[in-house]
Design a protein that fits this description.
- Helix 1 (3-27) runs parallel beside helix 11 and helix 3 runs antiparallel to helix 7 (146-169).
- The mean pLDDT is 85.
- This protein has 282 residues and is mainly α.
- It is built from 12 helices and no strands.
Length: 282
Amino acid sequence: MSWQFFISVSVVAGSISVLLQRLLLHRDKSNTFAYIVVFQALVALLVGTYAVINGFVMPDFGKYWLAITATCVLFGAGNVVYAKTLERVEASIFSVLFATGAVWVMLMGIIFLDEALSARQIIGSILIFFSIAVLGYSKKSLKFSKGILLGLLTGFIYGLAVALWAYVGRGSDVASWTAISFAGPSLVVLIAYPRSVKHMKSFLSGAKLIRMALLGVTFSIGAVTLLTAYNKGNVSAVAPINQTSIVITTLLAIIFLKERDHLPKKILSAIVCFVGALLIAF
């Protein structure tokens, strides 16, 4: 199967995952650090089980130790900022902010993987950041709330982390490396915030348990298919196409989470961002 198939599956799974995370972090008021540790560990367990069944293969630490360490630390930090952003902004807005990560992935692909930069990619990058300005625009001024700034920081951190993640993944078993790349950040956050342990039991019952289980499954599928797409295609093409989840997430958030405030602005921003992502890809 082609990388286009795998990225399509990843896009759908990723969009559903954002909605589930918004519910857990905003509506359920989950402890940020406990959520990150449990969520990352759950995905590592699910993907790790699949990897073991099919033959677990450790990445080449001698060759990739620096990239592996940096990936785990960046994803650990990125998860904290990611969660803090979803606590403050709606899923439909978050999807646009997170899309800025495609620009950083593209730049990393150009710098470290010798991929070419075109005029279309430059225009696409400008459009993506313009879509952020649309979100912050009001009749009086251009305002960027703390949530929007955190979202931009999330895109930057994840852009760097995903580029390194894809770099290691190209020379490693997909499922095995994916499991490690989720277990690592879980340990990083747990070590940094050990008090999060006392809040973890809230995820073991009720609606939180169901949502966390669904999130673990959908995110695991999305992560494995995304890394497979990176292995089969160019980083600078796969990353932007993955951002088609912008439109899907926006629509799902409007329908299921009732995020209908400032609807024209959200739709315009999502469309502009989507066009920018397509320009970067093609």
